[in-house]
Amino acid sequence: MTDYGFETRAIHAGQEPDPRTGAVVPAIYATSTYKQDGVGGLREGYEYSRSANPTRTALEECLASLEGGPAALAFASGLAAEDTLLRALTSPGDHVVIPDDAYGGTFRLFDKVETRWGLAYDAAAVADVDAVRAAIRPGSTKIVWVETPTNPLLGIADIAALAEVAHEAGALLVVDNTFASPYLQQPLALGADVVVHSTTKYAGGHSDVVGGALVVGDEALEEPLRFHQNAMGAVAGPFDAWLVLRGLKTLGIRMERHCDNAEAVVAFLQGRPEVAEVIYPGLVEHPGHAVAARQMRRFGGMVSFRMTAGEQAALGVVEHTELFTLAESLGGVESLIEHPGRMTHASAAGSPLEVPSDLIRVSVGIETGDDLVADLERAFERYARG
Ligand SMILES: *Cc1c(COP(=O)(O)O)cnc(C)c1O
């Protein structure tokens, strides 16, 4: 499979027509257990569905192929994947460096849960390689954790440079690749050790499933993660695995369209006096543009912008769109709009992760691009009229 292109692997990796019936699409193996041919006589290793399930195996093989790693593991959610990774690879007394604008749920996991079990963390601006280096505690830092682009300010981390910084300190580089998806960015090829996904977002792509995944760059990491996946049990169920597997088949063409539409939205916003600043890594004035251009195929479907007239204007606009649905989450075929300060990032208020109150974040979907631009234009006018 490795010789094939991305879209071919997205459709075929881990999946073959069923040898008995010829069914083209992998079955949803809704089974908890498997008949043994004599005690211990497992067929292809299947024993109990927490340990392994054929639908989940198909998804894991497909994800591994798309990220270019030897193995992937699928979980019940992105946070379940993160928790399993942390408990597998760190111990009480260890330290991790996390992004100072990490996904809110990731920050909460570190701050409210993992610290209770003895894991210490420091937050650093991952766009600043020196800041990350300075946050490392030699000897006790086991993981440098990076998101790129970040949420909601779309900061860009230099994956190759941070891999070097982490490895010099004897730490692993973990990259949350949820915002870019493996179609736009391949962190393992740039030196990352583990890729994290919330498959809820672009991988699933249809806002109909919650899931997560880990992809390892080094085979030696598979064994401890596999052990903890089974021992902790936060696995993806067969139907959820199937939905993500189906979503992945169209990831390439969806991402192209997400990027086309995001570029149209950015061009519209840049011409509007109501907008003080458009934040998109595809813009040459974005501070991470050069790095993003080096490590991403295109710049993604997420756009953030700040309203000239402040928080009330931001709240007004998010309540006056029709096609852009006012909702949290991202990465689905439908466009979403939100106010991070009051919604996804409300829990960061008063912390170093607080976001500007005049900020709007949109997840640009794959509808007709002109309709999306017109919807934003109408929302600006409706809000202005009150
Ligand atoms: C949504 C998200 C997560 C958490 O994933 P869940 O599937 O919601 O548990 C982690 N990282 C990023 C960047 C996300 O957007």
From TrEMBL:
Its cofactor is pyridoxal 5'-phosphate. The modification N6-(pyridoxal phosphate)lysine is found at residue 201. Pfam families: Cys_Met_Meta_PP (PF01053). GO terms for molecular function: cystathionine gamma-lyase activity; cystathionine gamma-synthase activity; pyridoxal phosphate binding. InterPro entries: Cys/Met-Metab_PyrdxlP-dep_enz (IPR000277), PyrdxlP-dep_Trfase (IPR015424), PyrdxlP-dep_Trfase_major (IPR015421), PyrdxlP-dep_Trfase_small (IPR015422). One of its GO terms (cellular component) is cytoplasm. Keywords: Pyridoxal phosphate. GO terms for biological process: cysteine biosynthetic process via cystathionine; transsulfuration. SUPFAM superfamilies: PLP-dependent transferases. Belongs to the trans-sulfuration enzymes family. NCBIfam families: PRK07811.1 (NF005871). This is Cystathionine gamma-synthase. It comes from Mumia flava. The lineage of its organism: Bacteria, Bacillati, Actinomycetota, Actinomycetes, Propionibacteriales.
